[in-house]
Design a protein that fits this description.
Blueprint lengths: L8 H7 L8 E2 L5 H11 L11 E6 L4 H15 L5 H12 L3 E7 L9 H21 L3 E5 L7 H7 L5 E11 L11 H4 L12
Antiparallel strand pairs: 1-5, 2-3, 3-5, 4-5
Helix pairs in contact: 2-5, 3-4
């Protein structure tokens, strides 16, 4: 199976496969390509036209500094933090050629529920992956401890915002592998008047 087949829009969607960030290498997207990906990602469903998300591109020459800041934050937040943990934090920040941090930035108070605004932020992350794959790259959307640390969030945004994901983009160093996919009978059903809760 050929993953991320760009021969048609449907082929791309049907074969879309993320790349593991640790396996993504150069070449990565140019600054212009990255801007184009972000512009595409922003064309996402957004009830109320609130733009409840933000993108922060971490330039290549700032990745090491980000890694060191993540290591320092981890050290301050994790009582049993080891040198290996700190090295993993630095590796996290420096893997793959490109990194875009996506923030959920809900507008509150507002009549549009925060939940809907947060869903839009998730859709933005997915659209960013679609754009990267359509341009011939592979992307990986990660969270991890850093996405739930307010101190890490403060490196990119402000109180009230959340890190929706770290999106890494590059070229797969090795062939992509399929992951388990659910059978449609497990996840899709036809509704009828007697339809009730299902597992």
């Amino acid at each position: 199976m050929a993953f991320n087949d760009t021969s048609s829009p449907l082929s791309l969607l049907a074969t879309r496969r993320s790349g593991k960030p640790r396996d993504l290498v150069a070449p990565g997207p140019s600054p212009e390509q990255l801007d184009a990906m972000i512009a595409i990602a922003a064309r996402t469903p957004d009830h109320g036209k609130l733009f409840p998300w933000r993108f922060v591109v971490v330039p290549d020459d700032a990745r090491q500094a980000l890694g060191e800041k993540l290591a320092a934050i981890l050290r301050s937040e994790k009582a049993d933090c080891t040198v290996r943990d700190e090295e993993a934090a630095i590796q996290f920040a420096t893997q793959a050629p490109a990194l875009v941090v996506v923030l959920s930035a809900p507008v509150v108070p507002h009549k549009i529920p925060v939940w809907e605004q947060e869903l839009s932020a998730g859709a933005v992350c997915m659209n960013l992956l679609h754009a990267a794959h359509a341009m011939g790259f592979a992307g990986g959307w990660l969270t991890g401890w850093a996405a739930y640390s307010n101190a890490v969030r403060d490196l990119f945004g402000t109180e009230g915002q959340k890190i929706a994901g770290f999106v890494f983009i590059g070229t797969p160093e090795r062939p992509l592998e399929e992951r388990p996919r659910p059978d449609l009978s497990e996840i899709a059903h036809r509704w009828n008047p007697g339809y009730g809760p299902r597992a």
